[in-house]
Amino acid sequence: MSDTEGPTRTRLLRLLRDRGALSRAELADRLQVPRPRLLTDLDGLLATGLIQEAGPAASRGGRRSTLVELNPTLRFAAVDLGASSIDVEITDGRLEPVAAATMVSDIRSGPKEILHQVNEMLGKFHTEGAFERLAAVGIGVPGPVSFRDGVPVSPPIMPGWDRYPVRDLIAREHGCPVVVDNDVNIMSIGERYGGVADSVDNLLFVKIGTGIGCGIYLNGEVYRGTDGSAGDIGHIQVDSHGPVCSCGNVGCLEALFGGAALARDALAAAKAGTSPSLAERLSANRTVTAKDVADGAAEGDVTCIRLIRDGGRRVGGVLAGLVSFINPSMIVIGGGLAGLGHILLAEIRSVVYRRSLPLATGNLPVVLSELGTRAGVVGAAVLASEIAYGQPS
């Protein structure tokens, strides 16, 4: 959103978040609002404690204006719930991290257990002095979400979470606004705010992890669909004779190349002896993981390279259809399996460029996430700041 769109209060706070301390004169210029109206809004925000005066600005030739900045004690909590981990960051008003922690966790243990762990992590941050009180909390979950209601909706890999009141319970616990979104949406928001997709208005962010999903930016706004399930590409069928997926259907993309699927196929290759690298790792560790596949591919193991290329080909086939349909200006690949690196990226690129119309791919970068594992918490922090400022994305 540009400096001249949206309510003045929201635009003012967003401007201070993104640009730092500014003078009253600079704010008036950038926001293009009458000075009396700006001063009224500033007085109101000063009274709330969201902003404060920060001394005189540099002279512009006349009487020096006063700098205004976000209150340095302002704090947001950003929570990224994954299938097997919880990432939490506390940020200041400018979304700079103040404290961070990661906990191994299983989303299938249910909402009560997971949210208890989240509250314990936030409580520890409070005890350690990372914040006195929270202005807002942003949360991403690995499944479809009703953004309006703040609840997961029939999430395939989250038993017990359907319609669970995540937003309301966290808001009650911490006494502040809370926003809940699908994890890939918050990753796309994070990458667009502070990563390789900075200010790209038409964007596909593809998360390839335990599940596979796609965050969609159209005309600078996240597109969530009518019921919050837009971008759930992991459940597009790519093989009518494929394995049964967690959603109950057959041959979904996720069932063929999500994290669990890759581990399954890697284990089969190790047991069959078709991959010396994976067989060695299975013997040493009694299990194999996606990282073992990546390491084996780096060592030149033919089976590991084939597993990655097969997955990239399937993802690329789905994305080629989306490129023809949406015509994005960038595709970003993130999530845990993005760590498979350039073999995966090269295969995805090859299929997308080969199977989409030249007009749609002539100027289409397909790149790896710049923020990596932080994309989710960065996006959750952005959403928290937006709801605190009165304008959720």
Automatic annotation (TrEMBL):
An example molecular function term from Gene Ontology annotations: kinase activity
Keyword set, alphabetical order: Kinase, Membrane, Transferase, Transmembrane, Transmembrane helix
Spans through the membrane: 318-345
Record's keyword annotation contains Cytoplasm: no
Pfam families per the UniProt record, alphabetical: ROK
Keyword Transferase carried by entry: yes
InterPro entries: ATPase_NBD, ROK, ROK_cs, WH-like_DNA-bd_sf, WH_DNA-bd_sf
Protein family (similarity comment): Belongs to the ROK (NagC/XylR) family.
The protein's name in its UniProt record: Sugar kinase
Species: Virgisporangium ochraceum
